[in-house]
Amino acid sequence: xxxxxxxxxxxxxxxxxxxxxxxxxxxxxxxxxxxxxxxxxxxxxxxxxxxxxxxxxxxxxxxxxxxxxxxxxxxxxxxxxxxxxxxxxxxxxxxxxxxxxxxxxxxxxxxxxxxxxxxxxxxxxxxxxxxxxxxxxxxxxxxxxxxxxxxxxxxxxxxxxxxxxxxxxxxxxxxxxxxxxxxxxxxxxxxxxxxxxxxxxxxxxxxxxxxxxxxxxxxxxxxxxxxxxxxxxxxxxxxxxxxxxxxxxxxxxxx
Length: 255
Hints:
By secondary structure, the protein is α/β, with parallel strands linked by helices. The chain has helices at residues 21-32, 44-56, 72-86, 109-137, 159-179, 197-200, 205-213, 223-234, and strands spanning 12-16, 36-41, 63-66, 91-94, 140-145, 184-191, 245-248.
């Protein structure tokens, strides 16, 4: 259990994309810091696995909800259930995301809509659903998990992925301008290459080695390393950080 500015005891929040990758690691990290979490993902079995890991580590089993982040009614329902079960929402981690590597000339509008639906519309819907509650309480933290692709572009994803992540950074900065005076901090978290299932399933060993070699640290980050940064941003240690894009990329300029 954490103490001092890193202690999240009695704080409650939502983690989307919690069935795997950075979302799962963030959920575990926040629970270890004392928080109660509501885990949301479209992947039900993956959510159960995350909840089992938390419970098997000696913590209370978290609330899990299967929902499509791009479905407005599903998002509203998930937030309402979280409020009913946990009582309040202190933080929102928008971690749900999907990746496709389709080249631009082969990109169909349906795939474009799918990527932007999950990666940009989803965070917008969740921010919209929790912001009123946070404003009312004059307290809250929103972390939108963007990407280094939102800073430049990505060689691991397509144009639609890069576009969505650029948009997510813009959304985060604008929300910070509007919400920070009302007590709500908003930041974009921009991880570089990370060993998530989304990356590993779509990349050969040779590709991963090439990416690692291009990183000054010479190592692709683990999800646990990225989750620790998210925990810091949620905590009071980051009380003066808002409207920022926090890079965690091992010094890489483009991945």
